[in-house]
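Instructor's aside before we start: the two examples that follow are unrelated to each other. I chose them only because their records fit on one page, so don't look for a connection. First example below.
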Amino acid sequence: MDMSAGDRKGLSLFALIMIGIGSIFGSGWLFGAGAAAQVAGPAALVAWVIGAVFIGMIAMSYAEVGAAYPIPGGMARYGHLSHGPVLGFLTGWAVWIAVASLIPIESIAATQYMTSWDVDWAQGLVDPASHRLTLSGTVTALVLTVVLWLTCYWSVRLLARANTVLTLVKFAIPVLAVAALIASGFHTSNFTAHGGFAPYGWPAVLTAVTTCGVVFAFNGFQAVVNLGGAARNPGRAIPVALAGALALGLVLYLALQTAYLGAVPPGQLARAGGWQGVDLNSPFADLAKLLMLHWVVTMLQFGAFISPAGSNIANVASAAYMVTNLAETGFFPRKLAAVHPRYGTARPAMWLNLGFSVLLLLTVGRSWQALAGVVSAAMVISYLIGPIAVGVLRRTRPGLPRPFRLPAAGVLCPVTFAFAACALYWSKWPDTGKVALLTLVSVPVAVLVLRRKGAGATGRAASDRLRSQLAPAWWMILFLVWMATLSALGSPDFGGRGLIPGGLDIALVALTAPAFYFWAVRAGVRAHEAGLTGTEPATAAAPAPIVTPDDGRPMVSV
């Protein structure tokens, strides 16, 4: 198996950076600044920096593993590579849920921004009191989800060709919005009035990182890891594309947050009683209306469709890759990995993702803000295996070619894992409990599948085999139970009951996380010694991107 892929014809570095930027600039910029300001006030700026640093640390750990194993949709496979089938399914399940959830949330974002249209029917799409989609809004979001899915189903080649153009347009719209808002009148007093820079305390800043779309926005880095295996030189392309996309993302999100904070009229802020009272359905569009910037409103209304649609190109591709990878490992039906012989699309996987998207939209996905918090918590769980896989593979596969090596991995990996644990805690109860339970549902499913696979064995032999396969996953199971318990009993600042005082709760998370990290690494080493991780996966586990010989532009197969 050739893992170097150095001369593979596929995505260029520029195309991969564009995929990363296109994914980072989805619906997050449309709502993130308004939601973060409402929770943390001007200190929301700090939340964006914390989020970028956190995601950057996670991304670099995935860069090492992704460059060594350039597998399309590889984030669903790294747990299997490091710990064997049970943890592989558990983490792959978490990654799939996180990525597939992005498909409906982009349609919800576009629907919510329709309320800024000056037509009567658009005003009824969202309940102004709860900011939740009404029945007509839910139907509209469903239609948008299905239309986008059908477009990818039939014309993914055309959409992939247009990805670079869409990304440039998506990048230009927020830049112009920032310039227009600042030029309309920048009120520096907004950064200190009504409680100061951090009016609701620093716990609110930490909460904003995971519940207000900060982690959600930067999560676009996953597209680089999941599709980077199809790059011409993954070892160089993946880390460079990650660094470039995240750096540009941080600069623009800080600019958007600054412009939003400074552009809100002081009178409006005073009437609202502070930042918590500034509650806008379509934050930038509604603010532009207040400032009489009608051309900006029109541009933002256009951007509310371009940004989610562009991001969902990578979301649909990544989610399909997740399903095909889980099918290749045997935990999803093999039929889901089937690729259409003519169109090169994994259509059964796409059908599954569409069904999940519709179910999510009809149940918990009635507003962008509500769904973003749950999705962000699920994303954090999906991040956990990155630094652990680096630690395990450094010990078990020291001779593995690593085109990119994470510097100071012995220190950065446990610190990154501890940061991820804190971010999961900051997601607030009950979201932490919901995503922990949703992730742990995969454990009994894994047990049933493994029992079926080992149907030939009976009695003690079957029991011992199942016990050995479960052993490398116990750290994750107990970690999720521990985090959910801490979240439920912790500080009210993070949604808990207050049985564990504020400050002590964060200390418990930070101090126990390294213990779980080293337990996880040791479990992975033992899994390799026991032969549970099996053979390396082939890079052809999922359909490779199609590239036309005439112009070399990326043609992503879903």
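Example two begins here.
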Amino acid sequence: MHIRTLASWPFSLILIISLLCPLSAQAEDWLKLDISGVSGELDRNIKAHLGQLPNSNVQRRAFIFNAEDNTSAALHSLGYYHGKVEQKVLSPKKGAWTLSLIVTPGAPTLIEWVDIDLDGEILNDPIISDWLNGLSIKPGDTLNHGVYEQVKSQLVTLALARGYFDGKYIKSAITINRDLNTARITLHYDSGQRYRIGTVNFEGQTLNDDLMNGLVPFKTDSPYSTANLGALNRELLNTGYFSNIKVLPQVDKAVDLNVPIKVELSPRPSHSIELGLGVDIGNTTEKEFEPRVRVTWRTPQINRYGHSQETSLEWAPDKPKFLSTYTIPLTHPLNDQLKIRVGMLRDKYGVTQVFDPEDNTFRNTGELEGNKRLFGIIRQQKLESQWLFSYSVEAIREYYTQSEIDYDPTFVLFGSSISKTIRGDSSLDPKSGFFQHYSIEYADPSLGSTVRLARLQTKYKWIDTFFEKHRIVSRLDLGVNLAADEDLPFIPPSLRYFAGGDQSIRGYSYQELGPYFEYTSSDDKLIRQVIGGRYLMVGSLEYQYYLTPSWRVATFVDAGNAFDVDQIDPIISVGGGIHWITPIGPIKLDVGVGLKGTETDTVSRPWRIHLTMGSEL
């Protein structure tokens, strides 16, 4: 055991400071360097070849002795073969010496031709063809040995990634004509045959073989490529079954050009519990901060068939939620899943107001509250065209009080949806992308529902970035409920349409906007209540400007509303914000202002702060 006493610390600290900190100062005390006649890349390359300044008399003499040769080597590496170097040394008895290098580069050597000749199966590889087409080295360029070496290594690296393990250079040379200041580059590469992917062997997993084999995104005997192995790694990672994944090609064990793949896996812990604490800003009718607490329990692998479950319990003032989802892989662990969902939740909608005759205005007293219980079965499939398709049956029963009448309708909804997301890149803040979603749900009394209802919804979001710093984000949400007029009160709030909130119309609280009606309560008070509508049409256009790669400012216009045929009240809000782009997604602070008050507003021009986090696609 080593024990360090307190008394030893000051000496150690002084020793470290004296040895490490003054190095650059000591070097300058021995020799100062002055280079003239060159700039830019030539100047940087000469300094790199000369190396660090000396720290002793012996090092100084060696530095000066080799300076001319190192400078010439630096010129040659960038194609200057006729350069001249004049060296002067000023050596006073006291103080630092000065080494002056006066450099005359001369005429550069230009590339006369580039001959890249490929043999073997690599000739028919489209990835190699794309690489060749993208090469920047070309006749007329100034010769740069560094660029030449980079091209050589790129071809070898790319060939290995594509499975040409027997590839080699037949010839690689630069032929220089110093009289004409020209150079010819010759690269002849023979790839040989391309290896193929052999059997994939999994170690350390407890899932059945059919499920694991379904995760392999390529066929045995497919052409070898690291891209295929990367796709396998992503598939395994996305399942959530494993905490550690290693995909190891065993090239040394290849038989008949087939490379066996060894996959080492470590299962995730059987259970995990996640605690989340947060606050909603701008989503309450009174502009209050609304705290949230969420506990999530996950079991990533219940049995050898890959079943999993996720149960979350969330608390917010008057909005508790419980939701549990049991997932069963079907024909593919990721692309075909059956989900069984059970939940109980309470939510608030619209706004309820009481008329105050003294002020001759309405004041907020609460919201329309719905308590819902649900049970659903959903099959979700990812098609080869990358569309996400699902069909479901969901039974819900919701309790709510509207105009002092209690309702508890039951609905059995048969639904189907299809959606697709296209991203310009894989980041959480993509520079471009397009999202589209379409869904239909149907309920009928003959199938167990209180009333007949057909729901149709579509959503779009489009993102694009122009000239690197200018980003446009637009969205459009449309919805319609088809039902008889007399059945409308029996459609629960969770199935009606409301507007307002950071994903709808900013400047208003979550689900605050929509059609309303007025009635006289049992105690003779005039009540106005937003109850939601049959239709929804909400759109937004936002312009964002990047101040830096991590910060941007934004300005937006949101418009639309939820409405009925006889009550259409379009709302427009404007605003701006500042966004911080973090590794976990953008954090956005926006302020929205309504251009006019609605019938249910207690102020003439409402405004609201919205704080959100997460990807926009």
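The CA atoms of residues 274 and 296 lie 5 Å apart.
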